Structures are given as structure tokens and as C-alpha cells.
Fold Ubiquitin-like domain-containing protein.
Amino acid sequence: MTTSHATPVQQQIVSHPQPVTHPTSTPQSSTLPQTTTTPQPAAWIPTGTPVIDINPRHRLIMEQEFDFAVSLAADQDREAARQTARVRRNLARTERQRLRDQRKEEQKTMQTNAVEEIANSRHNTAPEDMLSVILVLPDQQELNRTFSKDTLSETLHLYIEGVTDVVMAKLVYCGQVIPRRRETLSALGITGNCRIIIEEADFEDSSDERESEEEQSPEPKQLLHIT
């Protein structure tokens, strides 16, 4: 009797391929917020940290342009200040000239009034109250005039300045200068015939000296400093 060994039968399992399904990618909306934000310079550069320019030539050009602008602005300010000062000096000079002309007109009016006053006093004064005065001019020319003892010293000065070429009279009587006051000749000690020496008074206007110095001083030149 034959013994038969059973041989195990291997079953082959045939696997049928299944279709592979890929997940459909949904397009992201452009309106979704971004998760990463770009830091601002103030956030990632500490305060006081010097920013180093990688281009030294560019920095040098910028510094030169800045220095030029500062120098140009300073020169323009100085020139504007000089122009303002020049205009102010011209206005002051014009005002001084106007006041000087006004004083001359007033002086001329007072001299005319003094001549008329002395002429009238000669007719209204008694002969015993009259003085015979010899006026010695700076050119040694002599004038013989008669004045009243009540003639004011100021009137006498104005009279001499009105009838002679003396601009500012200085009267010398017996070695003493007759002051220019509203006092009569008799009050000053002149009671008889006398001789009065006329000199040109030293009249210097400080404003004229200051004006001449300003005109002689050269104007500073405009300087443009370029680095």
C-alpha cells in the first residue's frame, strides 16, 4: 500500500491593481494673510548703531555736496546781512542830510531875522545906547558896525554869520570868548566902543566823520568756501 504524501498547494493570490487617487490641490486664495512679516528697519537696527555705507565714494560725494550747501547758505546769509546794513546806512545818511539841510534853512531864517532885528534897533535906540564895534574878520578885513547895548549875544553871532562868509562865528573880546547866549552885550561887560575879533569856530559833525569812515572802508568781498 502506497502512502501518498499530500503536497500543499500554494494558492496564488492575484491582486488586482486599484486606481491611485491623487488628492486634488485646491488653489490658495490670494487674500489669505501671510504668516511671515518683513521687519521694519527700526525693529532690527538698534538705536545709535552707525550705518556703514558700502560705497565710500558715494558717501564722500554726499559729504562734499552737503558742505557746499552749508557754505553757500552761510555766504548768502552774510551777503544778505551786508545788503541790509548797506540799506540801513543809506537811509541813515539820507536822514542826516535831510536834518542838515533843515538846520541850514533854520539857521538862514534866524540870520535873516537877526539882521532885521539889528537894523530895527538902530532906529529905535538912543545914540547914547549905541556901541561902535570894529569886527575883524579872519582875512583881517575890518567892518565898522553899530549895535545896541541890548543886543543879544546870540543875535550878534547870527548877524555876523549872515552878513559875512563865516559859517560858525567865534567872537573874541579882550582875549575872552563871547559866549553864544541870550544875554545882552552890556550884561557881558561890553558897554563902550570895542574891537571884536572874529574867528572860524571848529565845528565838526561826528556823523560826517562816521559817514566818511564808512565810505572809505572797502566792502568785504563775498567768499565762497568749498570743501
